[in-house]
Design brief:
The protein has 6 helices and no strands. By secondary structure, it is mainly alpha-helical. It is flat, with a radius of gyration of 14 Å. It starts with a helix and ends with a helix.
């Protein structure tokens, strides 16, 4: 039941982004992130971080976008180093998305070398 709290908050936050209610969405997604962290749900954390990344990209807040996608990358890399982790396949899939997002962010921020590196990895 506790896991559903962060999932429901996450879904609601995602819907608010689609509706253009960015301030409410940010609050909701940050709450979902805190829930996922509290309940030690790393894949859920990554999903929420990627939604926050998309939100900040939409708002042209590239510094915050980069911060959130780097957090997602750190969590994913930690999971990928644990071969016994049950969701290894999903983690690998999310990792590709994270790398692509890093490439996109560095491209927009004008760092062509890092952008090319991450986009080639994704």
């Amino acid at each position: 039941p506790l896991a559903n709290v962060s999932l429901d908050t996450y879904i609601l936050g995602s819907q608010l982004v689609e509706d253009g209610k960015y301030t409410e969405a940010e609050t909701m997604l940050q709450s979902a992130l805190a829930d996922a962290d509290l309940h030690q749900q790393p894949l859920q954390q990554v999903k929420v971080l990627l939604h926050l990344f998309a939100l900040y990209m939409a708002l042209s807040n590239f510094g915050n976008a980069l911060t959130h996608v780097l957090k997602a990358q750190a969590i994913i890399q930690h999971l990928l180093q644990q071969p016994q982790h049950a969701a290894q396949g999903e983690a690998a899939q999310l990792h590709m998305q994270v790398l692509g997002n890093l490439g996109q962010t560095h491209s927009i921020m004008g760092d062509a070398v890092k952008a090319r590196f991450y986009l080639m990895c994704s």
